[in-house]
Amino acid sequence: xxxxxxxxxxxxxxxxxxxxxxxxxxxxxxxxxxxxxxxxxxxxxxxxxxxxxxxxxxxxxxxxxxxxxxxxxxxxxxxxxxxxxxxxxxxxxxxxxxxxxxxxxxxxxxxxxxxxxxxxxxxxxxxxxxxxxxxxxxxxxxxxxxxxxxxxxxxxxxxxxxxxxxxxxxxxxxxxxxxxxxxxxxxxxxxxxxxxxxxxxxxxxxxxxxxxxxxxxxxxxxxxxxxxxxxxxxxxxxxxxxxxxxxxxxxxxxxxxxxxxxxxxxxxxxxxxxxxxxxxxxxxxxxxxxxxxxxxxxxxxxxxxxxxxxxxxxxxxxxxxxxxxxxxxxxxxxxxxxxxxxxxxxxxxxxxxxxxxxxxxxxxxx
Length: 366
Known about the structure:
366 residues, Heat Shock Protein 90, 2 domains, two-stranded antiparallel sheet, 65% helix, disordered N terminus
């Protein structure tokens, strides 16, 4: 019972801590809060610097710098809330510059007036204020220009971040769409293979069911990740080729050679299967007698080289509805390569009268 109570108390404390921490972070992230923190830090810095070179007390110095920070804030917020959105962002640059200078010229005397009344009991300070009036314009103008540069930089960074987020979301949506096209396409072809063997009452049909089960498990549970182990992808290809060997018969030569060491390399799932599907669907399936598919996979720690060559007739039969089907595979894989391996792949197609070859090289991720 005590253990249960302690566990409950600990859980409530953890939940409270997480909730409080989340609210605190959200509160600190609001614009008003971090702007206020910025001005408070600036006030502390200016006061500390002024105290080092002055003989006045801390309250006297603090109130002086409080007026300074107040004037700075007036210039900054008038600039970023009114001048920039109404003039600079609308490409009225000369008007913006003129109004910015004018605002500094109008706000600066206001600071001098506040300090003049504050120094009512110190005539010497009042005389010094009037004498140094022109020098008060310089820091205010620097603050105005600095706020413009800061606003431009922060807006540029925000737009860049939003653009990157939008590109990432678009790429992820497109990849999900492309993978959804690949999976049903392959399943359709595989079921056709199984159907052909069941019509022949082949004793090898149960083996096909087992291999198909392994392939479906891989497609459903493994291919949801961005990258999968190369060993699993290669096993998937072997199962696919075993199914094709059973379906094609003895007149078709199918070879698959892997060179290099497969260890912990990872690759995007279902990247190679469209090329294999294409070699069988548009190559061997249209052969009258003998044919071949030759697959070579060269693996290293940082790259993969896939070469597929298949025989094909000199002319492919045209289906009744007037266009060849199945072209979606190669279109999709090209697009996936562009999205997943930008500037890290090289794809070459060799289309000869009697053979068709695919040469793909991919530089793997670190």
